[in-house]
# Entry
Amino acid sequence: MEQARIGVTGLAVMGRNLARNLARHGHAVAVHNRTSARTKALVEEFGHEGTFLPADIPEEFVASLERPRRLLVMVKAGAPTDAVIGEFAPLLDPGDMIVDAGNAHFADTRRREAALRPRGIHFVGAGVSGGEEGALHGPSIMPGGSPESYAELGPLLEDIAAKVDGTPCCAHVGPDGAGHFVKMVHNGIEYADMQLIAESYDLLRHAAGLDPAEIAEVFRGWNSGRLESYLIEITAEVLAHTDAATGRPFVDVVRDEAEQKGTGRWTVQTALDLGVPVDGIAAAVFARSVSGHAELRDATRNLLPGPPRTTIDPAGFAHAVERALYASKIVAYAQGFHQIRAGSAEYGWDIDLGAMAAIWRGGCIIRARFLDRIRAAYEDGAPTLLTAGHFAGALGEAQDAWRDVIATAVRLGIPTPGFSTALAYYDALRADRLPAALTQGQRDFFGAHTYRRVDRDGSFHTFWAGDRTEAAT
Ligand code: 6PG
# Structure
């Protein structure tokens, strides 16, 4: 009986497309779904693309896998993943692998990996980015788990991943939850990038008075320069689209309430725990949140006065917005990579930041030309992107335009939380002294929380309520 190199269970569109991608690359794939109609449909429709071994029940599915068994799970994150593990793990042997390719929280992945490890089963949390098309034609893959499991899975995953300059967009991220952690931060950066693009659009529309079709052209132009990326490319497509039912620009018929499934929020929650400033990502999550509070917006819209609306010359302004966008993007990516570095240190993952930038160059939602420069910066050991050669130059060159764009937005009453927070981070990092010294003084005043001095080691307290002398603590 022919054996499959890998099995895919969970055949909704992502699982189905990953299975097809594997089959198209010449790998025999066992396929299984909770309801077998989906399995049948996949084989009927796409059976000609390669070798699929359909199975109706878990036992049959597991029996059709070569050893060590590679079982890829593509179900909804959360309880369904635990249910599938509970169903399949008892059928597996030591050395076998379960790959969770969904958007799981890395803490769940750590828990599942730890639970299966004593049984010799490798649990691999693999981040997969690129949506349905990516899954079929080449996603970016971020697998965690043991090095032993990567030795068995790596060649297969690298085979189906996107390629940039012949290099697969797949690399072993690190043990246990490292892969899902990096995928989570990828999504956080995705949120920040999308928010910055949205603010650019809003400024071009409401400060410069361009219409969506004209703005689409601006984005098309940007996409042939240093901003070249999937998100800029699709932005032009969305803005150029006309609604068939009304003949209006598509963007004007969509409710302006951004939704989220949770990975951006997880990024910020985790960053708070790690103490890493990812304000660009947080600004994006909260901007979606503000947009979604329709009742609050309805109750306030006409009550809060704003400045008179005037428009400004689009030509020079679009150029300035490009600079502000590039600079703010550098900050967002720098913050995301800082979080990966901090997570890696916290959990002992030893994540190679340059390699992460490399596997994001293709296949994933944030794929972009400038990730190659980001890769180079981290390979050279940059502590942060902000001071790394090309990026330091770009920020220095952008800063006047960046400030002008934000000043214009403030003057015209156009909210730019992403741009503004990015610039504030930049200014905080370059500041000689921060007002944090005053904060420390206040903390010591009301709570005797102590402070450190610039001229001596140790902690100190001033007797604020008494004679205001100082004591070392
Ligand atoms: C990807 C995407 C994907 C995510 C969507 C939806 O990398 O392919 O990040 O994993 O599901 O982007 O995210 P939100 O619904 O939270 O916007």
Summary: The mean pLDDT is 97. The pocket of 6-phosphogluconic acid is lined by residues 103, 129-131, 187, 190, 260-261, 263-264, 364-365 (CB under 6 Å). The radius of gyration is 25 Å. Residues 314-347 form the longest helix (34 residues).
